[in-house]
Amino acid sequence: MSLFCRNQALKNLWELHQSGLAVKEGLERQYIMDAIDAGRMVLLGNPKHPGLIPALIGQPARVKINANIGTSPWLCSLPGELAKLEAALQAGADTVMDLSIAGDLDAIRQAMLKRCSLPLGTVPLYAVAQRYISAGKDPAAFSAEELWEEIHKQAEQGVDFMTVHCGLTRKAAGWAQDEDLRVMGIVSRGGSILARWMRRHNLENPFLTGYERIIGIAREYNVTLSLGDGLRPGAGLDAGDAAQWEEVIMLGHLARKGLAAGVQCMVEGPGHVPLAEVAGQISGIKKLTSQAPLYVLGPLVTDISPGYDHIAGAIGAANAVMAGADFLCYLTPAEHLTLPCLEDVKAGIMASRIAAQAGETALKRPQALAREAAMAEARKRLDWPGMSVAALDSAMVDERRKDFSQKEACAMCGEFCAVKMALN
Amino acid sequence: MSLFCRNQALKNLWELHQSGLAVKEGLERQYIMDAIDAGRMVLLGNPKHPGLIPALIGQPARVKINANIGTSPWLCSLPGELAKLEAALQAGADTVMDLSIAGDLDAIRQAMLKRCSLPLGTVPLYAVAQRYISAGKDPAAFSAEELWEEIHKQAEQGVDFMTVHCGLTRKAAGWAQDEDLRVMGIVSRGGSILARWMRRHNLENPFLTGYERIIGIAREYNVTLSLGDGLRPGAGLDAGDAAQWEEVIMLGHLARKGLAAGVQCMVEGPGHVPLAEVAGQISGIKKLTSQAPLYVLGPLVTDISPGYDHIAGAIGAANAVMAGADFLCYLTPAEHLTLPCLEDVKAGIMASRIAAQAGETALKRPQALAREAAMAEARKRLDWPGMSVAALDSAMVDERRKDFSQKEACAMCGEFCAVKMALN
Question: Does the global pTM surpass 0.95?
Answer without folding.
Answer: yes
